[in-house]
Specification:
This protein has about 160 residues and is of the alpha+beta class. The chain is built from four helices and five strands; from the N terminus they run αααβββαββ.
Length: about 160
């Protein structure tokens, strides 16, 4: 069964050649400009990079969310694509009751202390601080905000 008439197929072949020079592998292309620092790149941030149709982890390229251990390899890949200048680590409070945390191939001790009322970095449990520091150090991107609860004001801002 033929879906295209020969005249339309010829037109599509012509268009393909016109578009071909505009098509490229965008991760390395954008990363080059981010590293050089001489271009501004607008990033749509409503969805996770890994859910993106082009850069996502198939079959997770829908609007659903993955839950589990922090995947710094995935986060590093997202950073390569987007060029983060700061991170917001949210829902730190849901980790409050864990005895251990796994980050990339590291296992860190949990803090077993409620963080929902904490509003200053220095008041976070030392193990929670270490968790944030590992994220910062592995990505080489500053963590600017830490969410510790459900309310809008449940945020620690780090200058």
């Amino acid at each position: 069964m033929c879906f295209f008439k020969p005249c339309k197929l010829a037109k599509y072949k012509e268009l393909k050649e016109r578009v071909r020079p505009l098509v490229r592998e965008t991760v390395s292309y954008l990363h080059k400009f981010l590293e050089a620092g001489d271009k501004m790149i607008l990033v749509e941030g409503a969805q996770s990079t890994i859910l993106d149709i082009d850069f996502g982890l198939y079959p997770y390229v829908t609007s659903s969310r993955r839950c589990g251990w922090l995947d710094l390899i995935m986060l590093s890949y997202s950073n390569m694509i987007n060029g983060f200048t700061g991170l917001a680590v949210t829902k730190l409070d849901i980790l409050d009751d864990l005895k251990r945390l796994e980050v990339e191939y590291l296992t860190l001790p949990g803090w077993k202390t409620n963080t929902e009322d904490v509003r200053k970095w220095e008041d976070l449990p030392k193990n929670a601080q270490r968790y944030i520091e590992v994220i910062r150090d592995k990505l080489k991107v500053p963590v600017r905000w830490i969410g510790v609860g459900k309310d809008r004001n449940s945020m620690i801002e780090i200058p």
